[in-house]
Amino acid sequence: MTIDAKYLEKFVKVTSKAAIASYFLVGKKDKLAADKAAVDAMRTELNKLDMQGKVVIGEGSLDKAPMLYTGEILGNRKGPKFDIAVDPLEGTNFAANNLPGALTVIAVANESNLFNAPETYMDKISANLNERGVVDLDFSIKKNIYNLSEYKNKSPSMLTVCLLDRPRHKKIIDKLNALGVKLKLITDGDVSGALLVTNEKYNVDLFLGIGGGPEGVLAASALDTFNCFFQGKFLFDSIEEKEIARNLGIKDFNKKYELNEIVSGDSIFCATGITSGDIVDGIKKNNNEFELETFVTHKSMGVRKIIKTKYKI
């Protein structure tokens, strides 16, 4: 079942209003306040919509931030049933410190079509290809690079790999350096990092490494529209995390999830810039008007673009 095209504009408004709410706290050194502003605005806007939207991926419990709670029902309950995944402020540190790349993000699918991911880490990989066996989470770094090099007809030294700059990735970074691969290291924001493979203009051939599981699901919903490759494997550090996952219906804790197991059917994805980054420009304020950019996809309609909107104060 397709999602009515009218909802694309409505969800763009949701992320735009959340971005504007956070904008007033950019550079104020208070990431929780910036996050809460985005959460509150997003909840307010979602509750205005003709829908019954269930939050299957909320945000915040890992860092004790304000939340749109998993299981929360949003909308006026008079329209279609949707699964909703949110990250009202991706890059809380970016917003707090007025650094590039702060976004507000939402993904929407029909009921039961979006994976209910636990708040754990996920090992993930994405690339702009739709063939199996080229890159894979189970392959070594060397095999992934050599296979991708052959597939793209580029030498390893011409490939660029994006990953989070974290101590946990030191061995991966060392192996990539040994292969002569170019690196794009990011400090936060692995939703946007995964999306850099969608267009050659971003000059990223592969995204990989360990990041947030919910962020993996959000990125997957956009990557699906681009017919890109994505795999994810949840990582559980404790019995408590496994119990939470079990309650969400996860039985195999070592399972490698393909993209079509994370998001199925039609979907809409919106990411609005708060501060300028690789994907979209940040908010520009001109007198009493805000200018915003939103990266949007709508699978059934073939929408994959950046749109500009304006809102009066």
Enumerate the spans where pLDDT stays under 50 for 5 or more consecutive residues: 60-65
User: Portion of residues in helices?
Assistant: 25-40%
- From the spread of the alpha carbons, the general shape counts as globular
Q: Under CATH, the topology of the largest domain is which?
A: Fructose-1,6-Bisphosphatase, Chain A, domain 1
The helix-and-strand class reads alpha+beta
According to DSSP, the number of beta strands is 14
Number of domains: 2
Strand-and-helix sequence, N→C? HHEEEHEEHEHEHEHEHEHEEEE
CATH superfamily of the largest domain: Fructose-1,6-Bisphosphatase, subunit A, domain 1
Roughly how many Å apart are the termini? 37 Å
Q: Into which percentage range does the β-strand content fall? A: 25-35%
The mean pLDDT is 94
Looking at the overall shape, the CATH architecture of the largest domain is 2-Layer Sandwich
Q: So how many helices?
A: 9
- Radius of gyration, taken over Cα atoms and rounded to an integer in Å: 19 Å
Largest sheet: 8 strands, mixed
In CATH, what is the class of the largest domain? Alpha Beta
Question: What is the topology?
Answer:
Blueprint: H1 6-23, H2 31-46, E1 52-57, E2 73-74, E3 81-90, H3 92-96, E4 103-110, E5 121-127, H4 141-152, E6 160-164, H5 170-178, E7 182-186, H6 190-195, E8 206-212, H7 213-225, E9 229-235, H8 239-247, E10 257-258, H9 259-262, E11 267-273, E12 284-286, E13 289-298, E14 303-312
Parallel strand pairs: 1-3, 6-7, 6-8
Antiparallel strand pairs: 1-2, 3-4, 4-11, 5-8, 5-9, 9-10, 11-13, 12-13, 13-14
